[in-house]
Predict the 3D structure of the following.
Amino acid sequence: MVPVSVAGMAMALAGPVTAGAWNQPKGQGQVIVKYEPVWSIHRFDEDGDRVTLPDERQDHVLSLWGEYGLSERVTLLVKTDWQDADDGFHHYRGMGPVEIGGRWQAVDHDGWQVSLQASYVSDTQGRNAAWGSPGEGEQEADLRVLAGRSFGGRYPGFYELQLAHRWRDNLANEVRAEGTVGVHFRENYTAMAQFYAGRADIDSDVGGARWLALEMGVVRHWDDWSVQAGWRATTAGRNVPAGDGPIVALWKRF
């Protein structure tokens, strides 16, 4: 799946919260603090079969994601996390990778938003890829296209798709696809369904890791604050842990 540290971070909420393909208004921004514990007692092998791990794997990630509207069409972004990871062979507790970048709005028409995003990632001694070991990797570059559309009606909402390529030093490159559907089912509440899919280069030393993770959650809004709660599970893959766990996040807009 999308690395847990990265878990993420590809969401969009039309209306009171904007992210993903929706840029921040000039001079405004938001900060998201998210806690994601993931437990894995199984993994998907090279054939995609679920097998038992020799030791339970635990990953606890506390991430910080920030965005700021530099102009109406350009949003700056930064992300980092703190990790406590133990797979029975390696244990790491400390800072995860640091990502900085920007997003440029290419299209804003008839409810559609299309943006281009580029970012640089400085890896650490933590787990820089969900399928890798702590300390693997040095630096990364991520380039992605984000497209989303909002809609009205009795249950207004949005849908969004992101396609990305990530180049890595001392780790296999990745291609990713991530999508979100959100529906405002009552005042101040948004239900979201998301998927995170990708694969590492087939000639990598992990035999081409692949993943598909699904997530369901609800966001509750209060003025400039939002609280998110949900559950994520890796439902299919190759050479990746079959982990799942809850997600809790606090959003602050400014």
